[in-house]
């Protein structure tokens, strides 16, 4: 029987040693299948000689599964306190299995406030007569920490052995990293920094090797002689550079297996989301690949296999023609809540000349007039495009001709032909329009009073509702929008195809739309309707259209991991794409279902990207990765910052992003940074300064994703420059009096 004294204080200080030189070790007794990895902390005891052993031998006379008690979560050390200054304690007993012959009493000191150590204070203390004792104390604590990591590894050994062989080392390092992160080592890092060593959490790629290096260095050096530090470092870890190179090579191999090779001189991939618009231009895919895109993303929530197939065909052709590698990534739609499809708007376009502040025409509207599918030259950006199907009509046009028509309002309008372009095997014309016109499909075209053609394929206007603060919105279950709501007269109406919304929400919960652009509060629910009062929108209202996201952060909606549509789409993805994105991963169960579907189809080589876009997905990330490592598929993680910010809170997004990057780095899993990268540049053509900095910080990721927009080619080119511009630091010239001047 061993008697221990513990306290409810937030830190443990000055662990005492017993006469037989035993030291304290913190280990985790929670298995991987628990809700949180390394959640509870337990005490056990191991001999110092065992902990100093650099081999991963964890044999001890004390069985880990016989520990019976918990201790506070944090581990911190105060070197200035004496061993006899014990604070308020409570008594706790522990039984070590059948080994009851040894009895010892431990006392822990709990200071009233956390000690803040400065660099100068540490130097002064360590240079004094007790410097060697302090270094020895730090070594003891590092050894205890090392044993904690090894114990966590042993406790989870049965789960680690289920991982695919190529991921076993990564999974083990992830367990070490999470064990390290479960403790408060801030003060210990402060002591290490004061001794000239780096912090323990600086090397995520090999946590245990970094800890071993610190222990070896301290044990083989005398800190009274600073020159001995460098010499001891060389003796203790002579192959550290080789180890770092091997770590980088290991990370590169995992990245390449998922994302493919990058072109020479580049280290970060660029992914671009494309949709049906990519099929309307013969040169769009070629242009973005030439600008630096190495991965094309298709969202299965939009479009259909015919559109996806055309996009993929153009990607393969452009990649082969340019001799530039470009992979295809397809996102499964997942169980995401979205607004339903609104009734299409009218097929009419507005053609308007440019006017000054007084309404006077400054310049005519430029119209591209051609056969259906013929794109204008790359250097020409028309204000509108009019398509016709009559080749004879175009063949008879000449520069200077006037094409007359009656617009949708019955008003006479005239298009004057000003330029002619030969595009591939076809011909197109630039026409000038000096009056505002509304042109619809079927509009008849005349030259010199003779009917010569008809306008075709005018796209329908996007339907939407404009919501303002105070408006009421009724969301109906797969209902028709042709009939107004009878429960809330005057309210706007939308549908939602998912029944999860109506089965789970409660009055009073907040609800967000379109990645948080619109917010409201649920006022009432029924089996078929949800009534929302809008609390946040733009000053002039905000548009809400078809297939826009719906988020309810406070509701515990239980989705399926893969929907029936996802499973159907997975068959198409497996035969056409290089990697698949799994949306709205929440817990280990979602990965289990995914592994079963991959195994059923024998998809061992298909890349798998886990999209983290919910708070539960973030909290369970380490468990999710360990479960995913049980299959051999190339593995990656996408930080979907749009839904993640809405689900977790905007103010937490930066910290959550850093946490995800740290966990993935420890697991050697490539990270894809997504959502609103260079968003202003993509949409309007001009980036914000904050976006430039955000894009530069994304260098830490393996891949950066851009969303679609009219200026996406320019955005790819700029992002490629930002990501692959090397900073050149000029060594200051001590003889130049201006070299240190601040700017």
UniProtKB/TrEMBL annotation:
Enzyme class, broadest EC rank: transferase
InterPro entries, per database record: Pyr_Knase, Pyrv/PenolPyrv_kinase-like_dom, Pyrv_kinase-like_dom_sf, Pyrv_Knase-like_insert_dom_sf, Pyrv_Knase_brl, Pyrv_Knase_insert_dom_sf
Entry EC number(s): 2.7.1.40
Functional pathway: Carbohydrate degradation; glycolysis; pyruvate from D-glyceraldehyde 3-phosphate: step 5/5
Gene3D superfamilies: Phosphoenolpyruvate-binding domains, PK beta-barrel domain-like
Cofactor(s) recorded in Swiss-Prot or TrEMBL: K(+)
Name listed for the protein in its UniProt record: pyruvate kinase
Annotated organism of origin: Camelina sativa
